Amino acid sequence: MQLKDKVAVITGSAAGIGRRAAVRFAAEGARVVVSDLDDAAGAETVQQIRSSGHEAAYCHSDVTQVCDLERLMTFAADTYGGVDIFWHNAGTSSASVTSSPSGYHPGITEADWDQQMNVHLKAGFFGARLAVDKMLERGGGAILFTSSAAALKPPVGTAPTYPIAKHGLILLTKMMAVDLAKHNIRVNAICPASIRTAMIEGLLADESTKGIVDGLVKQMPMGRILEMDEVADCATFLVSEQASAITGTVLPIDGGRTSL
Ligand code: NAD
């Protein structure tokens, strides 16, 4: 029980990595606040957790809205008495489809730029700041950001908005880690690559798109798609007391891709 009695708030936990980790955190003893835009899927995450005899509650929150993030922290405090762990995991890929990783690409719209910066970076900054207010009341805590291997090494063909926003989270991790160490609050980031979520499963299921996944696998020295449980394992460790000496760390979970 690595997270016994901790209160964990996870954004984007109605699906994919966030859902898998929410189930895992709860199994490790945390009381989990599941949060997302998708209320039906969020309720399903809560149902999965409760049906295993663990504790969770759902709070709708659009992370691009600071007022929603405020409501989320208040919900956690009202429901479970505070916040010990905040993981900003919500994210979405860029709407712009580009053929070059150039930062000067004309296909990037203002709306796309704003959306990527808001859902990843603005939400990370304000979400963490609001979580810190609650953590200070409890004498410490752990913050985790989901960045991306694309922030460390943008793949050719990716619109620059996503890697830039995710790279911002890496700087935020380091700056917050230094500022908050004296308050017993640790701040770390993970950088996943090619995780088997619904999107990858969908590509694999269709002969016409299977080649896209093969291309991803070729970029991984380990030569395979990575599993959501492998991300949940790392996240659980980083927010647990087992990682009590670790802050400001940016951990690639990428099968070696960014070492190429
Ligand atoms: P996913 O689409 O399965 O889950 C993302 C969740 O975030 C969804 O439930 C979605 O509704 C939610 N979300 C999106 N916008 C939101 C908003 N404005 N407010 C609240 N919730 C919002 O994706 P995933 O693959 O599980 O990705 C999780 C995180 O991991 C993302 O930050 C993503 O960028 C990052 N990531 C994923 C991979 C991968 O291979 N899957 C690789 C690198 C990074």
TrEMBL record:
Example of a GO biological process term: monocarboxylic acid metabolic process
* A Pfam cross-reference name: adh_short_C2
* Entry keywords, A to Z: Cell wall, Oxidoreductase, Secreted
Subcellular location as annotated: Secreted, Cell wall
Q: Name one GO molecular function term.
A: 3-oxoacyl-[acyl-carrier-protein] reductase (NADPH) activity
Question: What is catalyzed by this enzyme?
Answer: a (3R)-hydroxyacyl-[ACP] + NADP(+) = a 3-oxoacyl-[ACP] + NADPH + H(+)
The entry assigns this protein to a family as follows: Belongs to the short-chain dehydrogenases/reductases (SDR) family.
Q: What is this protein called?
A: 3-oxoacyl-[acyl-carrier-protein] reductase MabA
